[in-house]
Fold:
Amino acid sequence: MSQISVTINGRQFRMACEDGQEAHLLELARDLDGRISGLRTKFGEIGDTRLTVMAALTVADELAEASLRVKRLEEELAALQDARVTASDRSKASQASVAAAFSAAAERIEDITKKLNQSIGPGGVALG
Structure:
């Protein structure tokens, strides 16, 4: 575990984090500090605790919106995957129908060719 110092709302805090996560924790602290500074600029001096709670609620709201968006995107992705499977199944069925139609047409052509060859007789030129 690593130990780093972060500054939030003008105060130093010693924080522990997993090794390699120091830069990430510093960035999170800078973000929270910036939010608190922005709220202080907007609302003035309304108390450190209140500013911190307001900043935390802002972060919680953004997280809730992001979670809802992720859920919607996951649902959309699932629907698209279902549509892709349905389209693939329809494509396979269409290909099978076309293949069956070509096969039936080939059989009919062969039958017609046999009948023509039979009608030409032994002295004629055979087809196919």
Q: What stands out?
A: The longest strand covers residues 2-8. The two ends are 84 Å apart (CA to CA). The chain has one domain: 2-119.
